[in-house]
Design brief:
The complex is a heterodimer. Chain A is built from 15 helices and eleven strands. Chain A is an alpha/beta fold. In chain A, strands 1-3-2-4-6-5-10-11-9-7-8 form an eleven-stranded mixed β-sheet. In chain A, helix 8 (256-271) links the parallel strand 7 and strand 8. By secondary structure, chain B is α+β, with helices and mostly antiparallel strands. Chain B has three domains: 3-288, no CATH class; 294-406; 413-470, Orthogonal Bundle (Arc Repressor Mutant, subunit A), CATH 1.10.10. Classes of the chains: A alpha/beta, B alpha+beta. The interface between A and B is large, with 44 and 29 residues.
């Protein structure tokens, strides 16, 4: 019976649970077994048993940085080793209230800082399509688990592409909602003005279901707004009258195989009645530079609380306060996290603030204006999600700049606060290629509808060669 | 050379809200350590601050009390530094766009008013009581996250006593508004002073130093005086004042350096991305305005003008709001008699109740007014009035009933006549002395009469009667 669940989307499994063909507890148990069999390094913790009420949906894999009461929540960092929060994140609680229980906690780049999951304090994650390659990051564990069939669906967070890029590299759907659509309360912060929770799923309908339960105004998060009117499930099968602006096809780093799949997808848009035209985002090219000032600056403050005083491991330090801070933080943080804390601290320093942080904020405003201008002309801005397919483990670890460029196509949207989805659109050299669709703030329902229509037409076979 | 001190004050006020600035923990003073904490004020991973609306309300009231300009959108910043009393590694405070600017309290201009959160409390175990040299330091997070308003004056004060006066006016004003306990010893009101000196008659500002840790107005005045003297000595010795932060020790009257300019922190301020700007709506402004009571400075002026009280008495009643409230209720009950009532309030009543609130005694304002009228109309003597007041404070009731019960009514003239005659007859020596030109000898006869009447007679009247009877 149970192995049948593996071939179903979460929505389809929910229907079986509802009709009584399979009980929620059986479904939970099945997925618990699948998660426990993970050998990609995707999980950091798996539930021992189903909670009292197993819910009305199959359970969900949750990125490690979501706080879940009593469950290890370490944001992939040794500095939070053994930390079990006294409370649960609002987004996770919303899912639980909807009948979606926590299956396990997934591996990630430490504090969501990375594009390959190689910065995890608990080891890398392998890509199920090719175990010598990265799953992308930072939500690499969530993406790999869904792609490998060790989780029916998952949530992650996206700061500069951390949902969409791993979704693209693993051949699944990943969506970053509008900033403020989902509460950030209980998400261990990387960069507060950019972080946003979103779904990683097998198809667009599952993403819409998760988003409909995740979103909402939360009194515990002043920056949360929710999505007015909620999120309806997508039904569109045509794209008649919709205008798509294609961006970034001339970038030198774009792999020909990726470009080919993206162009094929553009042709499908036209087959479905949509129109495609090139669109300029004149300042998007500065996105990476601005992002790598703003995100580290905010992170340098967000990570200051990890001082060994109240929770987490503490260095011995022989009673010297400064040594306590230095040794605890040196031992607890990985190299990339330390690098970004230093970049951010520098960028905020007296005398440099305007030149770095001030300038980056201006670029951010310009990028938002670019999108606003684009959305005067088109309904969606589309592009590759990643310039390349999944790269080899270790390939970019010695070259931070090359790693940072992995987020070239995904960074502008969070800088502008707008939503975007990545859907698989084909294979290049046997590896998945992602297609990105971005829309104006709070256009999630329209993006999901367009992605739904396109998904049907693409008919991507999501099962990795195993 | 003659130097002129230039002083500005920075004040931290703990607000008396029900909960902390950015979380739902209740405020406390003196409770068991670490019993008023939650994941938010302990800086747990993933938590977010949410601004306390009541704290904004109180801060708006304060800004309005100073006639400040209120910013349409003020923003919170993060002030970054590492210290065990700061669980997030940054303090949420306001920086380049504070809640309010450009106000005044009396003649002193207010530079800015902004909101922030208090740090936790560190307790250092060891002989020094400071972190250096402590054997162990422990943290009590109860205080962490308490709403604070910081008030910064312009450098408008010119002497330690002006600074002290300003501090007292500020304290009385905030107390009247009910926004803070304003207790300096408990730390709900904290004052730092920026001090510089310059040659008298010049306009440029000298290098200033910052004085911390003065937990009473007396220490504030003394600390500033000591720092002025120190700076004068430095300049007269041909030296230069260094910009630094100083700690004033009231026990030894000494100033020690806490931080030099080189050691000043780079706080790396940047806008707090977890909070939205504070944008007061018309309704919020209206609510704050409506909540403002008459403030001490205005009240003193009114009492002096409308009730013709002496300035010092008016000020006393205005600065001790609960005494002033009691007084004004009594004035209403008595229909006038304000001056006598004011004297009785600030002298007899204040002497008996100390710092406590007269509303907390058994004495009713109407009864108090009636008592003062009885004395004023000479129905009872002043000393009998004081005795009645003691009874009323303890037991309440009406003054005339107490007078009757205790037989304190003024002696009738017939009765008094007899007593005076008897006293004259019993004191022939005194009579002789008065007649031979020593009028002060009358005291002995008056004393005898007063003893006999148990104070119910009026001293002046008795004296007049004696003089009449012996023809002196």
């Amino acid at each position: 019976m149970s192995d049948e669940l593996l071939s179903l989307t979460a929505a389809e499994q929910a229907r079986r649970i509802e009709s009584g063909e399979v009980s929620a507890a059986e479904a939970f148990d099945y997925w618990r077994g699948r998660a426990a069999s993970d050998d990609l390094g995707a999980y950091l913790w798996v539930a021992d048993e189903a909670p009292g009420d197993a819910g009305s949906f199959p359970p969900i894999a949750v990125k490690d940085l979501f706080c879940v009461k009593g469950v290890p929540s370490m944001a992939g960092s040794r500095i939070l080793e053994g930390y079990r929060p006294p409370y649960t994140a609002t987004s996770v609680e919303n899912l639980q209230n909807a009948g979606i229980q926590v299956l396990g906690k997934t591996n990630q780049d430490e504090f969501a800082m990375g594009s390959s999951n190689e910065n995890s304090g608990f080891g890398p994650v392998q890509n199920p399509w090719d175990r010598t390659r990265v799953p992308g990051g930072s939500s690499g564990g969530s993406a790999a688990a869904v792609a490998a069939g060790t989780a029916p669906w998952a949530i992650g967070t996206d700061t500069g592409g951390s949902i969409r890029q791993p979704a693209s590299l693993c051949g699944i759907v990943g969506m970053k909602p509008t900033y403020g659509a989902v509460s950030r309360y209980g998400m261990i912060a990387f960069a507060s003005s950019l972080d946003q929770c979103g779904p990683l799923t097998r198809d667009v309908t599952d993403a819409a279901i998760l988003l409909s339960h995740l979103q909402g105004r939360d009194p515990c998060d002043s920056t949360s707004l929710g999505i007015e009117g909620g999120v309806a499930l997508p039904t569109a099968e045509r794209l008649d009258g919709l205008r798509f602006g294609i961006w970034g096809m001339e970038e030198p780093g774009l792999e020909p195989g990726v470009a080919e799949q993206v162009r094929a997808t553009l042709a499908k848009i036209e087959e479905l009645g949509g129109s495609v035209e090139p669109i300029e985002l004149p300042n998007a090219g500065h996105g990476i530079a601005a992002y790598y000032v703003i995100a580290p600056a905010e992170a340098s403050a967000n990570l200051a609380r990890y001082d060994g005083v109240r929770y987490g491991p503490r260095a011995a330090a022989n009673g010297d306060l400064t040594a306590l801070y230095e040794e605890t933080r040196h031992d607890g943080f990985g190299e990339e996290v330390r690098r970004r804390i230093m970049i951010g601290t520098y960028a905020l320093s007296s005398g440099y603030y305007e030149a770095y942080y001030g300038t980056a904020q201006k670029v951010r405003t310009r990028i938002a204006q670019d999108f606003a201008a684009a959305f005067e002309k088109v309904d969606f801005v589309v592009s590759p999600t990643s310039a390349t397919v999944a790269f080899k483990l270790g390939e970019r670890t010695q070259d931070p700049l090359a790693m940072y460029l992995s987020d070239y196509y995904t960074v502008p949207m969070p800088l502008a606060g707008i939503p975007a989805i990545s859907i698989p659109c084909g294979l290049s050299e046997g590896l998945p290629v992602g297609f990105q669709i971005a829309g104006p703030a709070f256009s999630e329902a329209r993006i999901l509808d367009a992605a739904h229509a396109l998904e049907k037409e693409i008919a991507f076979d999501g099962v990795p060669v195993r | 050379m003659n130097y002129e001190p230039v002083i500005g004050i920075e004040i931290h006020v703990q607000l008396r809200t029900r909960t902390k600035m950015f979380c739902g923990c209740s405020l406390s003073f003196g409770d068991q350590p670490n019993t008023h904490t939650c994941p938010i004020c302990l800086g747990h991973p993933g938590t977010l601050p949410v601004t306390n609306a009541e704290a904004v309300h109180f801060a708006l009231m304060i800004a309005m009390a100073f006639d400040c300009e209120i910013a349409p959108r003020s923003i919170f910043h993060r002030k970054n530094y590492f210290y065990p009393d700061l669980p997030k590694g940054y303090q949420i405070s306001q920086y380049d766009i504070p809640l309010a600017t450009a106000g005044h309290l009396g003649d002193v201009r207010i530079h800015r008013v902004h909101m922030e959160e208090d740090a936790a409390k560190l307790i250092h175990e060891g002989s020094s009581g400071r972190i250096h040299g402590a054997e162990t330091s422990v943290v009590d997070f109860n205080r962490g996250g308490t709403p604070l308003v910081e008030i910064v004056t312009e450098p408008d004060l010119r002497s330690p006593s002006e600074a002290g006066e300003f501090g007292r006016l500020l304290q009385a004003t905030l107390r009247r508004m009910g926004v803070s306990d304003v207790n300096m010893e408990e730390g709900s009101l904290r004052m730092d002073a920026n001090v510089s000196i310059r040659p008298a008659g010049t306009e440029t500002l000298g290098t200033k130093t910052e004085l911390k840790n003065m937990n009473s107005f007396r220490f504030l005045e003394r600390g500033i005086a000591a720092e002025i003297a120190r700076q004068e000595q430095v300049l007269q010795g041909g030296g230069e004042v260094e910009q630094e932060t100083l700690h004033y020790d009231p026990q030894s009257s000494t100033l020690t350096t806490l931080r030099s300019k080189e050691e000043a922190h780079d706080y790396r301020y940047f806008p707090e991305p977890d909070l939205v700007p504070v944008a007061p709506t018309d309704a919020m402004l209206e609510r704050a305005r409506a909540a403002l009571p008459e403030l001490p400075a205005a009240r003193a002026e009114r009492l002096e003008r409308d009730l013709e009280l002496p300035a010092e008495t008016a000020r006393l009643l205005a600065f001790r709001a609960e005494l002033g409230d009691f007084f004004e209720s009594a004035v209403q009950a008595a229909n006038g008699e304000a001056r006598t009532l004011a004297n009785w309030t600030t002298n007899e009543l204040a002497a008996r109740i100390g710092d406590s609130d007269p509303a907390g005694t058994a004495l009713e304002p109407g009864a108090f007014a009636e008592l003062v009228v009885l004395v004023g109309e000479k129905k009872i003597s002043a000393s009998a009035g004081r005795e009645v007041l003691d009874v009323l404070l303890a037991e309440g009731g009406s003054p005339s009933a107490v007078v009757e019960q205790k037989g304190l009514g003024r002696a009738e003239s017939g009765e008094l006549d007899e007593i005076v005659d008897r006293a004259i007859a019993e004191n022939p020596d005194a009579v002789e002395k008065i007649r031979s030109g020593k009028p002060q000898a009358i005291g002995a006869i008056v004393g005898a009469v007063m003893r006999e009447t148990k104070g119910r007679a009026d001293g002046g009247e008795v004296q007049r009667m004696i003089s009449e009877k012996i023809g002196a």
